[in-house]
Amino acid sequence: MLMRTDPFRELDRLAQQFFSGPGTWSRPTPMPMDAYRSGDEFVVEFDLPGVAPDAIDLDVERNVLTVKAERRPTRTGDQVEMQVSERPLGVFSRQLFLGDTLDLDHIQADYDSGVLTLRIPIAEKAKPRKITIGTADNAPKQINA
């Protein structure tokens, strides 16, 4: 179902963390996810703690699903003096390359307790089905004209 992910994304994340300033990320970063099949649907869950629902953007183009989310600062103003800033802020992005066996026109998305859950139905053409076997006894008869 899930065709592939970028194997170098984790290396990019570590490099970004090392070279960028503390507390913020200079480029979009990946978000942890789980992906599994449950019955007749494919489920993908993304951890997005501290992200408001209106700061999440989902796009599907061909077989590429893009999830973007923005974690915004919660403490702003002149009176705030940060002592420790370890929670990354900014835009997070993740792309999934999905197989042809999924019905991308009927994706359902829910967001609860910092977890974005996508439910993607398995396409009818990809579901297992029975094939009837014909025999000589029940073969179609030819009619001579």
UniProtKB/TrEMBL annotation:
<protein>
    <submittedName>
        <fullName>Hsp20/alpha crystallin family protein</fullName>
    </submittedName>
</protein>
<dbReference type="InterPro" id="IPR008978">
    <property type="entry name" value="HSP20-like_chaperone"/>
</dbReference>
<dbReference type="InterPro" id="IPR031107">
    <property type="entry name" value="Small_HSP"/>
</dbReference>
<feature type="domain" description="SHSP">
    <location>
        <begin position="24"/>
        <end position="136"/>
    </location>
</feature>
<dbReference type="InterPro" id="IPR002068">
    <property type="entry name" value="A-crystallin/Hsp20_dom"/>
</dbReference>
<dbReference type="Pfam" id="PF00011">
    <property type="entry name" value="HSP20"/>
</dbReference>
<comment type="similarity">
    <text>Belongs to the small heat shock protein (HSP20) family.</text>
</comment>
